[in-house]
Design a protein that fits this description.
The complex is a heterotrimer of chains A (532), B (152) and C (907).
Chain A lengths: L5 E6 L2 H6 L1 H14 L6 E6 L11 E4 L3 E3 L7 H10 L9 E3 L33 H6 L4 H8 L4 H11 L11 H10 L6 E6 L8 H8 L1 H15 L3 E6 L4 H16 L15 E6 L9 H8 L23 E5 H5 L1 H7 L1 H5 L9 E8 L5 E6 L4 H8 L9 E6 L5 E4 L9 H6 L8 E6 L4 H15 L5 H18 L7 H15 L3 H5 L1 H10 L1 H13 L1
Parallel strand pairs in A: 1-2, 6-7, 6-9, 7-8, 10-14
Antiparallel strand pairs in A: 1-3, 3-4, 4-5, 10-11, 12-13, 12-14
Helix pairs in contact in A: 5-13, 6-7, 6-9, 8-9, 8-10, 17-18, 18-19, 19-21
Chain B lengths: L1 H7 L8 H10 L8 H11 L3 H10 L11 E6 L2 H5 L2 H12 L5 E2 L5 E6 L11 E3 L2 E3 L4 H13 L2
Parallel strand pairs in B: 1-3
Antiparallel strand pairs in B: 1-4, 2-3, 4-5
Chain C lengths: L3 E6 L2 E6 L4 H7 L23 E4 L6 E2 L10 E3 L3 H16 L15 H8 L27 E3 L9 H9 L5 E4 L6 E4 L14 H5 L5 E3 L14 E6 L8 E7 L2 E7 L11 H5 L14 E4 L2 E4 L2 H19 L4 E4 L6 H15 L4 E2 L7 H10 L17 E5 L3 H4 L1 H14 L2 E5 L7 H5 L4 E3 L6 H14 L5 H7 E2 L1 H9 L3 H8 L3 H13 L3 E5 L1 H4 L4 H14 L9 E4 L6 H6 L6 E2 L3 E2 L3 H11 L11 H9 L5 E5 L3 H4 L3 H10 L2 E6 L11 E4 L8 E4 L5 E4 L12 H11 L9 H11 L8 H5 L29 E2 L18 E6 L17 H4 L5 E3 L1 H7 L6 E5 L4 E8 L7 E5 L27 E7 L3
Parallel strand pairs in C: 1-5, 15-16, 15-25, 17-18, 17-21, 18-19, 20-30, 21-22, 25-26, 26-27, 31-35, 32-34
Antiparallel strand pairs in C: 1-2, 3-4, 3-5, 6-9, 7-8, 10-11, 11-12, 13-14, 13-27, 23-24, 28-29, 31-36, 32-35, 33-34, 33-36
Helix pairs in contact in C: 7-25, 8-25, 9-19, 13-15, 13-16, 13-17, 13-19, 16-17, 22-24
Classes of the chains: A alpha/beta (532), B alpha+beta (152), C alpha/beta (907).
The complex binds ligand MGD (2 copies), flavin mononucleotide, iron/sulfur cluster (SF4) (5 copies), FE2/S2 (inorganic) cluster (FES) (2 copies) and molybdenum atom (MO).
């Protein structure tokens, strides 16, 4: 399922138009259609990139590869070689876009310079070719640890020093999690990668898995070494078949190269990695539900405490980490904590992968420094509100996220700053809504999502999500009643206080932020009903 | 039986239940798990039947009733909703003449709703069997359904 | 005992056990914290969230049912915020609930109803509109005994956990998710699931979602119930304590009483199978045969006739021409009086009962090895055994509540189960899946595998040398015999692979405490006594006696078969296993009973039948037995009974045997009288009168008293206490089990030698009853009959969960025949194919003794070449076929092995 894994941008301006950009575009679409790639590769006309005199420019995103002076006859080769096989077409005039440190480049749009750590290699190398990966620096972190015989404690220390925090939503310090797991009593331990990625608006983990699966393998081996686990599991949501296939291939290759399995790099350290496939349940992204699911059970979250670090998979100490979190690890181990700390903010070092969506010009994915202002993500990378319409709100962090109004556009996108502003970073999804969008409608959709995804184990969430959906539905249908918003808020608060797991606890975020920031819109929706 | 072969690929350990159910269902042209399938999996893994039923009915990718040849799963999560998935849903209901959770009389299509498919960059999106369709519009839907009808 | 600590709840200091459940501790101290999902008997789920409290030092609210008490804990159980939160939760919960209390069985006895009342949530005052109507419901009323209404289900999972954690079954699960979640049995339909109708889930449900079907005739609400009577189950030897709900003098509902030995659990028979008590065809009037017909008579006429005819036979042919069969369905007191009646009024020791067909070999074998023939340990101890060896006991079907202990030992305490049984019984998965094993032996080869185990144990030095040296005798003789039983040789006899046998030997011998559980598969053989003594040898060799959770544990079958034996309803012993041949003991009883007693050992059941057929026994008094279905070789039994001059049957129904009687005496059932049953773990359990007896039916012991008196041996017992007092006097084991203690609710295990004695949990602690344990060197002898060219199949007989013996009781119930309506034979698929028989087709089964027609059913349980038939169904009576060859010591027939022939009858 490699849908729109790639965007092909064709900057249209006077120069490119004269050079035949539209002919190239037509040919491109024909060739893609012939290879049934239309659902995988999206062809976009973009605004000028500010490069003149280079004929037709064709940019492949997110590979960050520019082809210049493209002729119609080059198109089949670009499609076959690059878009199909992921290899840069030799012989054509091309250039890669500069990455870190940020270099001057286009001011807006997806091709704007990004600082990439976790997606550093994605689409510049063939994800299915371990040699290319190794040549591009793959497994350097693992090699360093095993080669220099760093102790597991030293690895954990390095991660702690780096300040890496979980990218799965909660921002828990990764080094500490590993340390707890390492120190928990018990011989058998596990490292589990959470690739369930179900948060609406989020697909960063998929792109990491599809674009650079070896980075995850390397990270899992390092994590296993650090916490003392001989087995690791990657739990991937069932819909991500391409991710599963790519990772599976990569595991086979890594095993062959002695980077997984027994006695890795002759260091005495052994580590086996297995993929487990989910089957359609958002709640299985919650770490204890994920563990239950890994054990082959219903995805009912467990009561915490005890936490997975002491009682995880099969009741053994287990560290559960998000894909993006782990994807930061090889870089840190290869380049040192100091390098990592230079990026991002003091309390949230490193980069963050954001998905910018909804009413923006360039929906897609952006890796940039933690603490980048929201405005820059939406207007810089996302190209601003689509069609030049007015910005109304952004839903940050997915369905379990927060509606932020215009006045918060300058908030910095990191755990601390967002928290200070009663918002959340969550998974890094940024859903932009323009002036035509309805918050009432969106809250309804969120409520529907929660009602559909509640595991049903506990009363407040099982029934509460349904009640909130019913109220949201009638407000949306224009049948809202006086007191509905108050009831909704009260109920969401009760759910926050009493739900068994964070799923039921988190509906308060969108509900409260919608009602507080868009009070009038709700009043209007209910008021109209009163008149009707 | 076919499921026997699938079962033997796995160790007799409960943690393989989800994978076994996936494989058995994938082998079913009607995209579902029959009562016999559930029992076979339970017997193989030595799990109580109810346990296997509980698991199979929990996850949305499994179905305990036969589904059409083309399983259409329309994303209705907020990003797709914002970009018009309800129009897409309405169009599909109109074209197929069935509601969500239902199968057409010719057993060609089953319409289901799904939560975010992780392709929100091309919202609104849907999945037909293993294939994702993005940037959907009412007009495109008609064409896709036509293709699927013809492609049978 | 655990440490007591102080905690503070709402400012009040409270003492609680450290680690105790906070909700329970709070409730015990008067803090009535609401909560629906918490159920003391299972692990907490924390689903309902109503029991939320605040605990100092922890953020927010926490469900108290998930918190363990710690010293110094400061808890807020009630404040405005908690109460308003709870109220809102209750409001939310009610919106999912179909509160149709007007017609709900649980009205007045319902936790969610109480909750709504408590928070004043009358319908108009609720904030949340009902949603249950809009949610697809998944009711299931397909099970014979219960119905599930999802619209009333609060998804608390108590039923799911009860089925798994209490019963060890796992029939239930939650299905689907979110607002659609509901309870499901098996793969979705209760009748097609493995549910065996124990009703544990119903008992666990806090609301009206899981309800009994009105198998007792009417639907009842708790408030309609006039009385609740705690009594003892009349079916099997577990002795479950049942709470009978009574209305209009009828049993309307049954619950497991929360006391020893079952602690609330019971099986389908105890819970749903007691309506036979109220059947219209209960005997209500004495019947006398006149002109070949049984006609109603008065009690006086009947009793006079009985006394006169027996008196005449005695005068004419002497006491040896009379015999009596006592009853393991009757109370201790009734058995006591019956054997006394035979020994005094009849004047012989010709008294026996169904134990002869059952555990006679246990009584004989264990008496020889240890000195007393009963379960050495208690039921509850099984849960903590490290290894349990179950052989020849289909425990889940025949002693279901004991089976739950075994399952729990395996599932929750890491015990390993070894099953040695020719059939793949339901315990097998619990052995195979959890580190134990199942060995399939050939029927009747038990001595061989037991010797084989001992061979390995001795050779590998796994024996308990110290125990053998100090506590036993004759070890050398044993050693010599078992030397021959090498694993390879045992493999050729039993079919058990040598390597598996070795594995089993190690598993059993290395356990710190290992318990042997056995039943009819061991006892019902011509080598029954040998088999039993082999079990004793095995346990002694490994030192598994005289301590907790080990031992040799024969599961006694009938509700009071232990008691019947204890009370001397046996031809060789007076009450308390005091030999009739011992002059001093005889003198003791002669003095007490004021008669001269016969000094010769009397006849056993099987011998009585032979003597009757030969015309040597002329008068027979049968109290509560149905030999016309239960004895081996029924053709012969019929001839014997028809040959009698005079046959009296005293029963609650007109059984197949009663139909042959000259006089039939109607009596009260267990529910209509008082007394005691002694269960399989030697525990004396009170039987309480719950309803009046139908018509003119009288109580067994009163009838015997009156017949005896009319025959000239005067008996003057007026109350049950008179009988109990006499037993206290004469039976040393029961000396301390007094009426007073029984009335106080004590449930004592014998030996209980004096009124201060607490009873005995396990036997042979420091010394065996006979002093030293005795090893018997036993060689293997094959069964009396074995398949051959003419009779190529091996026929074995036994039981089913849903029926009881001759079906006299179980077939007269609403629920049980719904599970199994009639007779069938289990057969292996390959054999059926070979003979061209389709499952469900009728076949003719014949042995050297007779033939029956019966439906053949394909079964995964029996091995190729073997068939299995239950003896519950008179219309296709297994005992037409069985061999009456007997064990020379115990005189028990070989019900478990016969050779038969099978013919297809075509469709
Ligand atoms: N539901 C129900 N419960 C009952 C009864 C009832 O009728 N119905 N009756 C009660 C009474 S009185 C009794 S005595 C008990 C009997 O209880 P059980 O002894 O448990 O019952 P059975 O079905 O007679 O046989 C027990 C097992 O012996 C096995 N077996 C057969 N042949 C051999 C052999 O040669 N060696 C060995 N080791 N095993 C063999 C059979 O496969 C079977 O699993 O049940 C009591 N409980
Ligand atoms: N083929 C085969 N035959 C067997 C066996 C086998 O495994 N295979 N097992 C044998 C064993 S172990 C046993 S224990 C016997 C059981 O054989 P039986 O004892 O003959 O069988 P039950 O049907 O229990 O008979 C009890 C009778 O007592 C009556 N009754 C119930 N309550 C009362 C009461 O309060 N007072 C009086 N007076 N009567 C009452 C019942 O109606 C019933 O008629 O069967 C044996 N027969
Ligand atoms: C309902 C719910 C869904 C979640 N989904 C995901 C997910 O899809 N991926 C993820 O990494 N974490 C998810 N989480 C967070 C995990 O529980 C957990 O905190 C995370 O995997 C820890 O990894 P990290 O420390 O690397 O962030 C979810 C949490 C909840 C409550
Ligand atoms: S909060 Fe929701 S998802 Fe979490 S346990 Fe409760 S019902 Fe399940
Ligand atoms: S379950 Fe309780 S509240 Fe519900 S209808 Fe029955 S009695 Fe009423
Ligand atoms: S009746 Fe017993 S076996 Fe059946 S579901 Fe309930 S608890 Fe389980
Ligand atoms: S049936 Fe009863 S016990 Fe079971 S989940 Fe529903 S309410 Fe709870
Ligand atoms: S296990 Fe035995 S005593 Fe207990 S209820 Fe069942 S039949 Fe009665
Ligand atoms: S919201 Fe529809 S694919 Fe993510
Ligand atoms: S009783 Fe504690 S959560 Fe239900
Ligand atoms: Mo028995």
């Amino acid at each position: 399922m490699s849908v729109f894994r790639t965007h092909v941008l064709l900057p249209v301006d006077v120069g490119t138009a004269q050079a035949g950009v539209f002919e190239v575009k037509r040919r491109l679409e024909k060739e893609l259609s012939a290879r049934q790639l239309l659902d995988e590769v999206k062809v976009l006309e973009s605004g000028t990139v500010g490069i003149v005199g280079k004929g037709v420019i064709l940019a492949v995103y997110p590979d960050r590869m520019y082809y210049f002076n493209v002729r119609e006859a080059d198109v089949p080769r670009i499609v076959d070689e690059h878009l199909l096989k992921g290899r840069v077409v030799a012989g054509l005039d091309h250039a890669a876009i500069a990455v870190s440190p940020p270099a001057p480049g286009p001011k807006v749009g997806l091709t704007r310079a990004q600082r990439r750590i976790v997606l550093d290699r994605a689409w510049t190398v063939d994800p299915e070719n371990i040699d290319e990966i190794i040549a591009a620096g793959g497994y350097r972190g693992l090699e360093r640890i095993l080669g220099e015989k760093l102790s597991p404690e030293a690895v954990i220390e390095e991660i702690k020093k780096s300040g890496l925090r979980g990218r799965g939503g909660a921002g828990f310090p990764t080094g500490m999690k590993w340390e707890f797991t390492r120190k928990a009593p018990g011989g058998e331990k596990y490292i589990v990668c959470n690739a369930d990625e179900g948060e609406p608006g989020t697909f960063k983990d998929r792109l990491i898995l599809e674009g650079d699966p070896h980075r995850l393998i390397e990270a899992m081996a390092i994590a296993g070494y650090a916490i003392g686990a001989a087995r690791g599991f990657v739990y991937i949501r069932g819909e991500y078949q391409l991710s599963i296939d790519r990772l599976q291939k990569a595991i086979v290759q890594a095993r062959k190269y002695g980077l997984l399995g027994d006695d890795i790099l002759e260091s005495g350290f052994s580590f086996a990695l297995e993929i487990r496939k989910g089957a359609g349940a958002y709640v299985c992204g919650e770490e204890t539900a994920l563990i239950e699911s890994l054990e082959g059970k219903r995805g009912n979250p467990r009561v915490k405490p005890p936490y997975p670090v002491t009682h995880g998979l099969w009741q053994k100490p287990t560290a559960v980490n998000n894909v993006e979190t782990l994807a930061n690890v090889p870089g840190i181990m290869a380049n040192g904590a100091g390098w990592f700390r230079q990026i991002g903010t003091d309390k949230c070092p490193g980069t963050k992968v954001f998905t910018v969506l909804g009413h923006v010009e360039y929906p897609g994915l952006v890796e940039t420094d933690m603490g980048t202002p929201l405005r820059e993500i939406i207007f810089g990378f996302g190209g601003g509100v689509k069609g030049g319409r007015k910005f109304k709100a952004a839903l940050l962090g997915g369905a379990a996220g927060v509606f932020v109004p215009e006045r918060l556009l300058d908030v910095r996108m990191d755990f601390e700053s967002l928290k200070e502003n009663k918002a959340v970073l969550g998974s890094g999804a940024v859903l932009v809504m323009d002036e035509t969008a309805s918050v009432v409608e969106m809250l309804f959709s969120i409520a529907k999502f929660f009602a559909h995804e509640s595991c049903g184990q506990c009363v407040p969430c099982r029934i509460g999500t349904r009640q909130i959906l019913d109220i949201a539905w009638r407000i949306r249908q224009g049948h809202g009643r006086a007191g509905d918003t108050e009831t909704m808020l009260q109920l969401a608060e009760t759910m926050f206080k009493t739900s068994l797991c964070p799923l039921g606890q988190s509906l308060i975020m969108p509900v409260r932020s919608a009602l507080e920031n868009f009070t009038e819109e709700f009043a209007l929706a209910i008021g109209q009903a009163g008149k009707a | 039986m076919k499921s026997d072969k699938i079962l033997k690929r796995y160790e007799r350990s409960g943690d393989h239940l989800l994978a076994i159910l996936h494989d058995i269902q994938d082998a079913s042209p009607e995209h579902y798990l029959s009562d016999a399938d559930l029992r076979a999996a339970a017997d193989y893994l030595r799990l109580p039947y109810s346990f296997v039923h509980g698991v199979a009915s929990f996850y949305t990718m499994y179905s305990l009733t036969p589904r059409g040849r083309n399983l259409i799963r329309v994303c209705q999560s907020p990003p797709c909703h914002l970009l018009g998935s309800s129009t897409i849903s309405r169009e599909l209901i109109k074209l197929l003449g069935v509601g969500f959770g239902e199968t057409t009389a010719d057993r060609l299509f089953t319409l289901e709703m799904t939560s975010c498919l992780g392709v929100c960059g091309v919202a609104p999106a849907m999945m037909v069997n293993d294939r994702v369709y993005g940037n959907l519009t009412a007009e495109r839907i008609a064409g896709i359904i036509d293709d699927l009808r013809r492609g049978q | 005992m655990s440490e007591m600590v102080t905690i503070v709840i709402d400012g009040k200091e409270i003492q609680a056990e450290k680690g105790a459940n906070l909700l329970q501790a709070a409730r015990a101290n008067g803090f009535d914290i609401p909560g629906l999902c918490f159920y003391e008997k299972v692990t907490p789920t924390g689903d309902c969230r109503l029991c939320m409290v605040k605990i100092e030092g922890r953020p927010g609210m926490v469900p108290s049912c998930l918190v363990k008490v710690e010293a110094g804990m400061k808890v807020t159980a009630f404040d405005e915020q908690l109460e308003s939160t709870r109220k809102m939760l209750a409001d939310v919960l009610l919106s999912e609930h179909n509160d149709d209390c007007i017609t709900c069985d649980r009205d007045g006895d319902c936790m969610i109803q109480d909750l709504a009342f408590r928070y004043g949530l009358d319908t108009p005052k609720r904030t949340f509109a009902p949603v249950w109507r809009e949610v697809p419901q998944a009711p299931d009323s397909t099970a014979p005994v219960l119905a599930y209404d999802s619209s009333k289900c609060i998804k608390c999972e108590r039923c799911v956990k009860a089925c798994w954690e209490i019963q060890g079954k796992g029939v239930l699960s939650m299905a689907q998710r979110g607002i659609h979640s509901h309870v499901v049995a098996g793969t979705g339909q209760w009748t097609l699931s493995e549910c065996d109708g124990c009703g544990e889930c119903v008992q666990a449900c806090p609301v009206g979602a899981l309800m009994e079907k009105p198998n007792y005739g009417t639907r009842v609400k708790k408030k309609d119930v006039e009385r609740k009577v705690v009594t003892t189950c009349p079916y099997c030897g577990v002795g479950c304590q049942l709470e009978l709900w009574i209305r209009n003098d009828r049993i309307v509902k049954v619950k497991g009483a929360d006391i020893v030995p079952n602690f609330g659990a019971c099986c389908v028979k105890g819970r749903f199978g007691l309506d036979f008590v109220h059947r219209g065809d209960r005997l209500t009037q004495p019947l006398i045969r006149k002109e070949g017909q049984l006609v109603e008579s008065s009690w006086d006429e009947a009793l006079d006739l009985v006394a006169a005819r027996f008196g005449a036979i005695k005068n004419e042919h002497g006491p040896a021409a009379l015999a009596g069969l006592s009853s393991a369905k009757c109370t201790n007191e009734e058995n006591y009086i019956f054997q006394k009646f035979v020994r005094t009024a009849f004047g012989s020791n010709n008294v026996d009962h169904c134990a002869r067909l059952c555990h006679a070999s246990t009584v004989a074998g264990l008496a020889r090895s240890f000195g007393s023939g009963a379960m050495t340990n208690s039921i509850a101890e099984l849960e903590h055994a490290e290894v349990i060896l179950v052989t020849g006991s289909n425990t889940t079907e025949t002693h279901p509540v004991i089976a739950t202990r075994i399952k729990k030992a395996v599932l929750f305490h890491g015990a390993k189960l070894i099953v040695i049984d020719p059939r793949r019984i339901d315990l097998v998965p619990y052995a195979e899946k959890y580190g134990g094993m199942w060995l399939r032996q050939k029927n009747g080869s038990d001595v061989a595998w037991a010797n084989g185990l001992m061979n390995v144990i001795i050779r590998e030095g796994l024996l308990a040398e110290e125990f053998v040296k100090t506590r036993t005798e004759d070890y050398e003789a044993l050693k010599k015999v078992v030397e021959n039983f090498t694993p390879d040789k045992v493999e050729t006899i039993t079919g058990i692979p040598a390597a598996r046998l070795q594995e089993a030997a190690r598993l059993y011998a290395k356990a710190g405490c290992a318990s042997i559980v056995y039943s009819m598969g061991i006892t019902q053989h011509t080598t029954g006594t040998d088999n039993v003594m082999s079990m004793a040898n095995l346990a002694m060799l490994t030192g598994n006696l005289g301590k907790e959770s080990c031992g040799v544990n024969p599961l006694r079958g009938q509700n009071n078969v232990q008691g019947s034996c204890d009370m001397g309803a046996l031809p060789n012993v007076f009450p308390g296993y005091q030999a009739v041949t011992d002059a001093a003991l005889r003198e003791k009883f002669e003095k007490a009973w004021n008669v001269t007693l016969d000094d010769k050992i009397g006849l056993t059941v099987t011998e009585i039948m032979h003597h009757a057929a030969e015309g040597k026994i002329k008068g027979l008094y049968i109290m509560g037995e149905n030999p016309m279905v239960s004895d081996p070789d029924l053709g012969h039994v019929k001839k014997a009974l028809e040959k009698l001059d005079f046959l009296v049957v005293q029963d609650i129904f007109l059984t197949e045997t009663a139909q042959l009687a000259d006089v039939v005496l109607p009596v009260a059932s267990f529910a209509e009288k008082q007394g005691t049953f002694t269960n399989t773990e030697r525990r004396s359990l009170w039987v309480e009168k719950a309803v009046p007896a139908p018509g003119e039916a009288r109580i067994d012991w009163e009838v015997i008293r009156d017949v005896s008196t009319r025959m000239g041996y005067k008996m003057e017992y007026r109350t049950i206490k008179d009988l109990i007092d006499e037993v206290n006097q004469l039976v040393p084991q029961y000396a301390g089990i007094t009426h007073e203690r029984l009335m106080k609710g004590e449930r004592l295990q014998w030996p209980c030698p004096n009124p201060q004695h607490p009873g005995t949990k396990f036997l042979h602690r420091d010394k065996f009853t006979r002093g030293l344990g005795k090893f018997f060197a036993i060689d293997y002898i094959p069964p009396a009959e074995w398949p051959d060219a003419k009779y190529p199949f091996l026929l074995s007989t036994g039981r089913l969960l849903y029926h009881y013996h001759t079906g006299s009781m179980s077939r007269r119930t609403e629920a049980l025949p719904q599970y199994v309506p009639g007779p069938f034979m289990e057969m292996h698929a390959a054999d059926m194919k070979r003979l061209g028989i389709a499952s469900g087709e009728k076949v003719k089964v014949s042995t050297r003794r007779g033939a029956i027609e019966i439906e053949a059913r394909q079964s995964y349980r029996v091995d190729e070449g073997s068939v299995f038939i239950t003896f519950h169904f008179a219309e296709a009576a297994a005992n037409v076929l069985t061999n009456d060859a007997i064990d020379p010591i115990a005189k028990i027939p070989e019900f478990k092995v016969a050779a038969c022939q099978i013919e297809a009858l075509g469709a």
